[in-house]
Amino acid sequence: MNAAAHPLPQTSSSASAGSSGSAIDAVTLKALADFPAQLAAHFALFPAEARHWAPPSWDGVPSEPLTAIEQICHVRDIEIEGYQQRIRRTLSEDDPLLPSLDTDALARDRRYGEDDAAAALAAFTAARARTLAMLAEITPEQLTRRARFDGYGPLTFKALIHYLCSHDQQHLAGLQWLLGQLDAGDASPVLRPLGR
Predict the structure, then answer these.
(1) What is the pTM of this model?
(2) Which of 42, 150, 171, 173 is an S-S bond match for 100, by CB 3.0 to 4.6 Å?
């Protein structure tokens, strides 16, 4: 089917995402805007006693091997200390090297397993609103700005935003995978030691 002959219908939220004046495509902006609610909805599927549950094996996990609460804390910190910094630097510096963050060290040092889920979700939601504000007026010229992302190699600003959106989807997949493992009944829920 020819996409030009059969354009996708725009919902009011997708239309408003593209009407911000940003050169970033409306589909990606809408996915970024919708993610906080999707993340909260996915997390709410976990019974309270399973939010710290870890499977006996992480083989096949589509995200980092993190429990449900750790997934929430990770997304929050990567948004603030990872992607917001990468966005700022790519827009203001010439070809910066954008570091990756050590997920395991963050989870251990910040004791993700002891964090308050509601506070973590609220902090992430506020951070994503700030990210969207940063993206609201991106120009076509800014989309082509270059950087080097540790672990990914050379990229453009546009690619960086697609990686951010991909990271969101990876963690929804990780939560779904955890729910699948939990519901498969392969093991009874056992709390992971908080020290990781």
Answers:
(1) 0.84
(2) 150
